[in-house]
Write a structure and sequence with these properties.
The longest helix has 17 residues. The strands form three sheets. Strands 6-5-4-3-7 form a five-stranded antiparallel sheet. It has a four-stranded antiparallel sheet with strand order 9-10-8-11, covered by helices on one side. The chain has four domains: 75 residues, Arc Repressor Mutant, subunit A (Orthogonal Bundle), CATH 1.10.10; 44 residues, no CATH class; 62 residues, SH3 type barrels, CATH 2.30.30; 80 residues, Alpha-Beta Plaits, CATH 3.30.70. The N and C termini lie far apart (55 Å). A hairpin with a 7-residue loop joins strand 1 and strand 2. With 325 residues, the protein is an alpha+beta fold. Helix content is 32%, strand content 22%.
Length: 325
């Protein structure tokens, strides 16, 4: 829960306990300048977090209006349980520790002012931080809070993007998903120009973001939270590239290390085979991230199959060797 979300909860609370005024879903969405999806998510979250019942009923002047089931209910007069407080504290404590992430800054003050909880969080006030994330690249998180809210509120964006050649591009993007990989954050969404639902942008290449007043195109192509990343390494998925089974020979002294650093979560554990050597296998669509990760293992591994992957990797190693002659 971020501070803007809690502020909305307070505004909902004033509407739901006002039995003199009739608030329809359209009224609430217009008043708070939010999407229908955000309203539905907020309603479920409030019911779960504050243990309240929000009902939809026929009004005297409007078809369906929203109110608390209990006329005397108000979240400002209902203290959070210790378990609820602990959950909020832990989430904010961890997420606030990410350098450059402003989404949760100052929320501890809001938490401390909740009715029934007079003192600040013990995690935030009394204890030294004991969780840390490596975030040396601050520019990779500077737009995280803006993009997080845009995805939640289904807002269409105009992105000004600078590639690694320092060329700038401007395009319309419908944001869907934020993915962390290899100490970098990436945004996936619909690129209107390319008509691609899985366009990938590293956050540190985004120069500016503007909000567009156009209809949001829902993601009906991919489920990024389910199996989208199962057959790739990293974030880049090329559907023209078929899935290959990669056979990797592992040096005996690197078995534990390779098992602790799988290329993706479906990589098989390293096992000794009949020829006396150790091998691991994974099925993925070869992409740039795969080759980069394989190179990171150095001479601890050797790609045996398929031939195309082995040859491309050999070419990359030969190119590196030429630079050190």
């Amino acid at each position: 829960m971020d501070k803007n979300q809690f502020k909305r909860y307070q505004e909902y609370d004033a509407m739901f306990r006002d039995f003199k005024e009739e608030w329809s879903k359209d009224d609430i969405i217009l008043e708070l300048a939010i999407s229908e999806k955000t309203f539905n998510l907020d309603r479920r979250a409030m019911e779960s977090l504050f243990d309240v019942e929000i009902i939809s009923m026929r009004g005297q002047e409007k078809n369906y209006i929203y109110r608390y089931a209990d006329r005397d209910m108000s979240i400002s007069e209902k203290p959070l349980s210790q378990e609820q407080v602990d959950r909020i504290e832990q989430a904010i404590s961890i997420l606030s520790g990410i350098s450059g992430l402003e989404l949760f800054e100052g929320f501890e003050d809001t938490l401390s002012n909740l009715r029934g909880f007079a003192s600040k969080s013990k995690i935030m006030d009394e204890m030294e931080p004991f969780v840390s994330f490596q975030t040396d690249n601050w520019s990779n998180t500077k737009n995280f809070d803006v993009l997080f809210n845009a995805i939640r509120d289904e807002q269409v964006l105009e992105i000004i993007y600078k590639d690694f050649k320092s060329e700038e591009y401007t395009f319309e993007l419908h944001p869907y998903f934020l993915k962390h990989y290899n100490e970098m954050w990436y945004l996936l969404g619909y690129n209107k120009i390319e008509h691609a639902y899985n366009w990938v942008l590293p956050l540190d290449r985004i120069q500016d973001i503007r909000f567009l007043n156009v209809n949001y195109k829902k993601n009906e192509a991919f489920n990024f939270t389910d199996d989208y990343f199962n057959d790739i390494v990293g974030v880049t998925r090329d559907f023209n590239q078929k899935v290959e089974e990669i056979k990797i020979k592992v040096e005996p002294n690197a078995v534990g290390f390779i098992d602790s650093k799988p290329l993706n979560r479906f990589q098989r554990p390293v096992k000794r085979e009949e020829d006396g050597h150790y091998y691991t296998y994974l099925k993925v669509r070869p992409n740039r991230e795969l080759y980069n990760r394989l190179l990171m293992f150095g001479n601890s591994i050797e790609v045996m199959e398929p031939k195309e992957v082995r040859q491309r990797l050999k070419g990359m190693v030969d190119g590196i060797c030429l630079k050190y002659k």
